[in-house]
Amino acid sequence: MSTRLPAQIVKELLSYLRDPKSRLTLVGPPLMQLLIFSYAVTLDVNNVDLVVLDEDAGRGSHELIQRLQGAGFVNELSFVDDAHALAAAIDRREALAALHFPADFSRELAAGRPAVAQVVLDGRRANAAQITLGYLSAIAADTGAELARRGSGSAAPRTELRHWFNPNLIYRWFVVPSLSGILAMLISLLVTSLSIARERELGTFDQLLVSPATPLEIVIGKTVPALIIGSVLGTVMILAGVLLFRIPFTGSGVWLLGGLMLFILSMVGIGLMLSSICRTQQQAILGTFSIGVPLVLISGFATPVENMPDWLQLIAQASPLKYYLVIVRGSFLKALPSTDLLANMWPMLLIALVTLSSAVVIVKRNLQ
To answer: According to the model, what pLDDT value does residue 216 have?
Structure first.
């Protein structure tokens, strides 16, 4: 075993590093996707076109309109004369949102009574519309407080808002660490899922059937190279987040590296199980995306796991990505304590033990 196992590890590494196409596939696409997704994947809404129907033309509506014209997220603010033109602008997608100030808006505001302005949103773009509504509500609340202060002559109560861990709500601080885990997961899955399937197509898997190598040696020989490749790529992407995107790193690099290796190990186990079942590389590639996409969706990357149905939350507990995202986000933004790190590391270790053991059993069955 002391000679067979290193030989298999070296053979697997050379199979990836000697082929120029494999080298390009392992290095180029992940880094390119990290750069593209880091700028493209965002929930910030900018360049919003607004339409205003002002039947009031008083101080209150004038003050609010001025603030909207100076808001950074507004691209163009246009005015219409009636409700039909307002509806047509939304219908033709000329505006994402519209504001309708009734004739008594400023009068109600001056009397100290609640002044109501209608906001019309384009429901076809529901996510952007809801975020825009949040922007508009914040501006309206601030304007109302300012007008109330001027009217009373005394300082009106106000709320001071502070965002911990991400003071300026820079969305890239949230996206880039998560993308480092997602892209490392996909590469690890792809590398391992193709390993045994590729040998079946090339005919070299038949040589393993007559070799003295045991199933455990075969699995270890394919696990170590994938673990090295995945860990190196994950580390490069983390360094890109710190050095290229200037995301503050407040945690422990040693703990994060340990979590990364456990995460890659658990994904390698899933990939080897998939590779042991698939007969061709095409099946392995399709299987990788069939598993990878659901793992991303239930990981909490885009939506909180707590918002999912109970049965889906239960399935999410078997996703290594769910635990790694907690570790990598916490390590970047809030120096996650060691107790929380360990609480998210042992499930990945358990998943790795189960999947790697299953891969050994499947390979043993194939050898027999």
So the answer is: 81
Do 191 and 145 lie in a common domain?
no
Q: Of 152, 177, 207, which one is at a domain's C-terminal end?
A: 152
In a domain, 95, yes or no: yes
In this predicted structure, which of 51-65, 152-166, 171-185, 309-323 has the lowest mean pLDDT? 152-166
In a domain, 161, yes or no: no
Q: Is the dihedral of CA 99, 100, 102, 103 positive or negative?
A: positive
The residue to which tokens 């053979």 are assigned: 11
pTM: predicted TM-score of the whole model, two decimal places: 0.79
Q: What is the CATH number of the domain that holds 98?
A: 3.40.1710.10
166-220: pLDDT as tens digits: 887 788 888 889 998 998 898 888 888 887 777 777 777 667 666 777 778 878 8
Report the percentage of the chain scoring pLDDT > 70: 92
Looking at the fold, whether 227 and 290 belong to one and the same domain comes out as yes
Q: Per-residue pLDDT tens for 63-99?
A: 888 888 888 888 899 999 988 999 999 999 899 999 9
SS3 letters across the chain: CCCHHHHHHHHHHHHHHCCHHHHHHHHHHHHHHHHHHHHHCCCCCCCEEEEEEECCCCHHHHHHHHHHHCCCCEEEEEECCCHHHHHHHHHCCCCCEEEEECCCHHHHHHCCCCCCCEEEECHHHHHHHHHHHHHHHHHHHHHHHHHHHHHHCCCCCCCCCCCCCCCCCCHHHHHHHHHHHHHHHHHHHHHHHHHHHHHHHHCCHHHHHHCCCCHHHHHHHHHHHHHHHHHHHHHHHHHHHHHCCCCCCCCCHHHHHHHHHHHHHHHHHHHHHHHHHCCCHHHHHHHHHHHHHHHHHCCCCCCCHHHCCHHHHHHHCCCHHHHHHHHHHHHHHCCCCHHHHHHHHHHHHHHHHHHHHHHHHHHHHHHC
On the question of pLDDT at 34 being above 80, the answer is yes
214 and 330 together in one domain = yes
Residue 115 is part of which domain span? 48-152
